[in-house]
Amino acid sequence: MSAGVLFDAPGPRTVARHRLYSILGSVVLAVFVALALWRLYERGQFEFDKWEPFLTPRYITALLVDGLLTTLQMAFSAVIGAVVLGVVLGVGKLSDHALVRWPSWAIVEFFRAVPVLLLMIFIFYAYGIDRGDSGAYWSVVIALVLYNGAVLAEVFRAGILAVPQGQAEAAYAIGMRKTQVTNIVLLPQAVKIMIPAIISQCVVALKDTSLGYAVAAPGLTKVGQAIYQQFGNQVPTVFVLAALYIAANVALTMIANKVQKRFVGEKKVLQVSQVGGADGRDRMHI
């Protein structure tokens, strides 16, 4: 009933028209894909010599170990750091103290505005240029932590503000301080609101590791660059790297969704209510 009030169910003609649009769109997309593949075939991009490296155990090992595993390590380090930084800055933006609130606001707005690629290059030349592969590695990680941490700060701030105001009011009423209210009451309830956005940002961090090619950082793009420079097979290399990134992102999303369902299904969300007992004392219900 509530859905019908806000949205008129389409009639038979509208349903048929939408199906026709979907079919036509699919046909047009299939035609474009077929034309693109045909052009690549005409230019010899599907010849065996160009794909042979990806069937060779030595190059497969390099792609999976030196490439994919290193990329996942960078992404994992960046996500952990970004979550910690996001919590600190998000809570800081909600502080009652101007000396905490305004610097947090400035940091968030600055690093959200700076392109990640420029941030990586700046950190590399300021910190990692004399440190070899480790310098390039940590230049990518630090840049991703700063950018994604600034984005997650807004996510955490919005999640905390999305918790019903009565929860904080009840906590204050039983004598809890603001730090206790935020850490014990608001953050646990905000987590389930923020999980989808956090998952999305994890995927963004994983994809943005590919920008590390600009500072010669280890990972998939560096291994792919070495392969196509040796064999001149840029297009097949792009296909293989894209497939690995897609597989990693799909696996990450599936794992995160399972964690989310289990978390929401099993974790008891903290709820605070002010209830007057028979002895005249207020109690906090969890």
Describe this structure in words.
Helix content is 78%, strand content 2%. With 286 residues, it is an all-alpha fold. It has one domain: MetI-like (MetI-like fold). The protein has a two-stranded antiparallel ribbon with strand order 1-2. The longest helix has 37 residues, at 57-93. The relative contact order is 0.11. Mean pLDDT is 83; it is low at 267-286.
Task: Give the arrangement of secondary structure elements.
Elements: H1 2-6, H2 12-42, H3 48-51, H4 57-93, H5 98-113, H6 116-128, H7 132-162, H8 165-173, H9 178-208, H10 220-231, H11 234-266, E1 274-276, E2 282-284
Antiparallel strand pairs: 1-2
Helix pairs in contact: 4-5, 4-7, 4-9, 4-10, 5-7, 6-7, 7-9, 8-9, 9-11, 10-11
Characteristic key phrases:
286 residues, MetI-like fold, 2% strand, two-stranded antiparallel sheet, disordered C terminus, 2 strands, mainly alpha
The total tally of domains equals: 1
**Which shape, going by the Cα principal axes?**
flat
Structural class: mainly alpha
Instruction: Give the terminus-to-terminus CA distance.
Output: 33 Å
In quaternary terms, these chains amount to single chain
Round the mean pLDDT to the nearest integer and report it. Answer: 83
Identify low-pLDDT runs: 267-286
Strand content: under 5%
CATH C-level name: Mainly Alpha
Summarize the structure.
The protein has helices spanning 2-6, 12-42, 48-51, 57-93, 98-113, 116-128, 132-162, 165-173, 178-208, 220-231, 234-266, and strands at residues 274-276, 282-284. By secondary structure, the protein is mainly alpha-helical. Strands 1-2 form a two-stranded antiparallel ribbon.
